[in-house]
Amino acid sequence: MADEAALRALLLKGLAGDEAAHRAFLTEAAALLRAFFRNRLRSRPEDAEDLVQETLVALHTRRDSYDPSYPLTAWMYAIARYRLIDFLRRAKKRDHASLDGIDIGEPDPDYEARDAKRDVTALLDQLPEKQRKAIQLVKLEEKSVRDAAAETGLSESDIKISIHRGLKALMRLMAEKGAT
Amino acid sequence: MKTDKLIEMLARGTTPAEKPHWKRKLAITLFVGLGVGGALVAIGLGVRPDIGAARMPVMWKTLFAAAAAMVMLPLALQLMRPGRPLGWRIGAVFVFFALCALATIIALIGEMPERRWEAWMGGAAFPWCVVLIPVIAAPTAALLVWLMRAFAPTRLAMAGAAIGALSGGVGAMAYAMYCPTDSVAFVTTWYALAIALCAALGALIVSRFLRW
After folding, report:
1. CATH 1.10.1740 is right for the domain spanning A1-117
2. pTM (global) more than 0.90
3. Fewer beta carbons within 10 angstroms: which end of chain A, N or C?
4. CB contact under 8 A, A139 and B12
């Protein structure tokens, strides 16, 4: 697992536009976040994975809130902790969602899935058409921003903004439609 | 969706992140908030009629309010983004309120005993600035919420309080144009309390709008 310096270098490269570094950052972050959330939601590994995904989207869409003069892990775990608090607050509101088992119980040693309970693909369908289309073309069909702009008749910056807003909206949907 | 697939999706087509320009955005937000607050004062309350003769008191009250805002600013800046230490910035806020209390006491000692009550209360039955400053601060607070949501505040109650106090300082700057009371003890007591009230309202109400 990467340490602070390595992780920070990856994020900074990603911020500069290096796709491979950004992917590596998210992958390393996912491993750390998985440990973080599983430790705190011991008997609910699927909820933990939901939170890992939600936090990854948050780290990605809010990556410009990282200031290189401060420790990266402090930034990352502050966001993770916030997503966890938000999750617990929502779980409390939903009466049927029992909080039993949170912070207690043993982690299931056989639980290996990297799959969350919720289906992100289905949530994408709930986004406004413009955002959904932009994410669909660039993020899922692997088209360039330019091609996506040509296909939709939107400008390139419009496509980029739609993707960014769409991912932010996606994180909110993930939070709302999250654990039951 | 598997997490690996999600990561793949997020990373695909990574472009250089835009610089957030948060300092510039914050400065613009505060100026717009001050302008809106000033307009509210001018239209709703009216600029004090003796503003020409009262330049000096209006100026020092404005500067006092600006100083309050400056004290809150570093705190708000830290709370805008995740995982940043607060450290001395919290201390500065307490020092500011302690200095206000000290100034009040010194100013009141300097008054004749029979004039103290009037100097403290500004001769009115009720120090209306405690109510009016939060009202004038509200547009600034709304703008700051809008700005801060674009970043990623993670300590919402604290961030809400900082927004409240900061906009309270800006609101007090605008209010100084109207405020007919020029006694030092009045300002260091009631302006400071109005700003503290803004902070409390911020922690209770503004923080709800900061969720992301």
Report:
1. yes
2. no
3. N
4. yes
